[in-house]
Automatic annotation (TrEMBL):
Entry-linked Pfam families: CTP_transf_like, DUF359
Top-level taxon in the UniProt lineage: Bacteria
Keyword GTP-binding: yes
PANTHER family, alphabetized: GTP-DEPENDENT DEPHOSPHO-COA KINASE, UPF0218 PROTEIN TK1697
Record-level Gene Ontology MF annotations: GTP binding; kinase activity
Name listed for the protein in its UniProt record: Cytidyltransferase-like domain-containing protein
SUPFAM superfamilies from the UniProt entry: Nucleotidylyl transferase (SSF52374)
InterPro entries: Cyt_trans-like, GTP-dep_dephospho-CoA_kin, Rossmann-like_a/b/a_fold
């Protein structure tokens, strides 16, 4: 007698797979271990426009590359097919060979819709396998949106947890030299600064896509305002090079002030961090412009500002003897700032 050949199991799964993280690893691992043939659909670039903070979603080719690299690292016997999704459900509603669909709690409703469509098409319903979320170190789920928003790293490290871990961060003397190194591009002369700001004025896509422009420092804030660019958030103390701003300059900034905070020189107060965090959330939701006046000194507040800002945002600050510094927020920038803050006492 011949042994009855075991039926091959066909599995389907899909997603955006942006900023590939630990949750994606568990999702794909579960899909890989669930069947013999696996079809993975990756959302195309043209389908991401409606997603939150879509401007910082990685291009399709990069997202696909991360998925491919993960499957190579597993090195199993399951046959994997990766497809581009130009429509929400792809082959899941039409392929008669598929047996199971892999989802998360968030995407399970889509699987239910898929099964309704399959029944109308006289196809068998798919068995729905729900993969649990992987949590960050703040006990909330890791998601690509939280990474794009700037809340966590793709490894699940929560920046807010670090920032709120102390009542006050003190700058150690040994770190002062390291902090003199600029965190972004430096524009030293007035001409260089003017040319750069003009480039921001010409970049209409930036304003359409609603990336945040954040300034830390009085002269930097005024430089943008004077060129008719209103930053999303400005942080200032009415002082430059230890001298008070003119009354006219103070009034110009004052008209944008929504709140006042206290922060001593050489420190970063948790209450100041909370105010900046609240301001960013307000700006993100309402798109209104927000100004924070600091009583004390605002220089070091650029660090928590960078650590809390969404990916793709622009943080501009002034630094003595260097000039105007523009920092485009990336994962690498955030990690560098995190390491610096971990050295504060």
């Amino acid at each position: 007698m011949y042994k009855e050949q075991k039926k091959k199991i066909y599995v389907v799964a899909g997603g955006t797979f942006d900023h590939f993280h630990k949750g994606h690893e568990l999702f794909l691992k579960t899909a890989f271990e669930t069947g013999d043939y696996l079809a993975i659909g990756i959302i195309s670039d043209k389908m991401i426009a409606e997603k939150p903070l879509s401007y910082s979603i990685e291009p399709f080719n990069i997202r696909k590359q991360y998925v491919e690299q993960y499957f190579k690292s597993i090195n199993g016997n399951v046959k994997v097919q990766i497809m581009k999704l130009d429509e929400p459900f792809g082959i899941s509603v039409s392929d008669s060979h598929i047996d199971k669909i892999i989802v998360t709690k968030e995407t399970k409703p889509n699987a239910i819709i898929i099964n309704k469509i399959r029944r109308k098409n006289h196809l068998k319903a798919l068995k729905i396998v729900v993969v649990p979320y992987v949590k960050a170190d703040d006990n909330r789920k890791i998601s690509s949106f939280r990474i794009r928003k700037g809340e966590i790293s793709r490894h699940g490290h929560c920046y807010k947890k670090l920032l709120f871990s102390k009542q006050k961060f003190y700058l150690p003397d040994a770190l002062r030299v390291s902090l003199r190194e600029p965190l972004g591009r430096v524009f030293s002369t007035k001409k260089e600064i003017d040319v750069y700001i003009k480039s921001l004025q010409g970049n209409k896509k930036t304003f359409k896509r609603n990336e945040m422009i954040i300034t830390v420092g009085d002269i930097v804030s005024l430089s943008l305002l004077n060129k008719k660019i209103a930053p999303s958030l400005m942080i200032y103390d009415y002082i430059t090079r230890r001298e008070a701003l003119s009354e006219k300059q103070q009034l110009y900034l004052c008209s944008n002030t929504k709140t006042t905070i206290y922060n001593q020189a050489g420190t970063i107060r948790r209450s100041a961090i909370k105010s900046i965090y609240k301001a960013m959330n307000t700006v993100s939701k309402t798109k209104e412009k927000y100004g924070i006046k600091v009583i004390g000194e605002e220089d070091l507040l650029v660090l928590p500002t960078i650590l809390m800002a969404p990916l793709g945002s622009l943080v501009c600050y002034g630094q003595k003897d260097l000039g105007f510094i523009a920092v485009t927020i990336t994962e690498k920038t955030k990690e560098k700032v995190k390491e610096l803050l971990q050295m504060f006492t």
